[in-house]
Amino acid sequence: METLNKDFVSQSVLKRRSEDYEPPSISELQRLLWTKAGCGHVDHVWPNLHLGDAWTARDKMTLKRMRITHILNAADGKFNINTGAIYYKDMGIHYYGVEAFDAPDFNLSAFFYPAAKFIRAGLNTLGGKVFVHCAMGISRAATLVLAFLMICEKMTLVEAIKTVSVHRNISPNNGFLSQLRELDRALMRERKR
Fold first, then answer.
1. For residue 167, what are the CA distances in angstroms to 5, 37, 64?
2. 178 vs 32, 107, 182, CA distance in Å?
3. pLDDT at 68
4. What separation in angstroms does the CA of 133 have from each of 7, 45, 86, 112?
5. Chain Cα centroid distance, residue 87
6. What single string gives the DSSP state of each residue in the chain?
7. CA 77, CA 100: separation in Å to the nearest integer?
8. What is the pLDDT of residue 151?
């Protein structure tokens, strides 16, 4: 597994941002995506934070081997990846489910802050390791991981995409990218105060 260089990312975050910062267009953001050769079931994208698919979510042996303590399912519900807290009750895993659909008109932004709070709590737990997933681990789950990095690690959208894309191919749909752009703008306004 590659060593994650959190210090480098933190240094880039501390650089002074321009007063006229504007998130890139959707087409420019799409050019930043899908930069890694191949895409596995699960990848370590940030210290103690893993991003992956439904196969890994259902593989209890892999989750035990990875020592996962928290799972965020971005495709929860009976029409999606219906694992739920009961599925993991024998493992002592903390579970948070978001019943999201991978559709451009789905409002995933309503879950940005609750998901970021869950991920942060998991990472702050002694020995905490968080696994965020959806069906394929490239759109819904990736969007929530990007939002976490933007909200809790104070990254811009571009910095968050570059951070995750080094380790895993991601491809949030255009609607999710638009929602992340709005989050980016809101966070920039908030940080200027």
1. 12, 10, 21
2. 15, 10, 6
3. 98
4. 26, 12, 17, 14
5. 22
6. -PPP-HHHHHHHHHSPPPTT--PPPHHHHHHHS--SS---SEEEEETTEEEE-HHHHH-HHHHHHHT--EEEETT-STTS---HHHHTGGGT-EEEE------TTS-GGGGHHHHHHHHHHHHHSTT--EEEE-SSSSSHHHHHHHHHHHHHS---HHHHHHHHHTTS-----HHHHHHHHHHHHHHHHHHH-
7. 8
8. 98
Could you confirm whether 39 is annotated as catalytic?
no
From the first residue on, what is the mean pLDDT of each consecutive set of 10 residues in the chain (193 residues)?
A: 41 48 86 71 97 96 97 92 91 96 97 98 98 96 98 97 94 97 95 83
**Residue with structure tokens 């999606």?**
80
Residue type, 80: N
Evaluated on CA atoms 186, 49, 13, 30, the torsion sign reads negative
What is the reported pLDDT for 101? 95
Distance of CA 112 to the CA centre of its chain: 10
Asked whether the beta carbons of 83 and 58 are under 8 A apart, the reply is: yes
Of 134, 144, 170, 180, the catalytic one is 134
Question: Which residue shows structure tokens 């020592």?
Answer: 67
Per the CB < 8 A criterion, the answer to whether 133 and 71 are in contact is yes
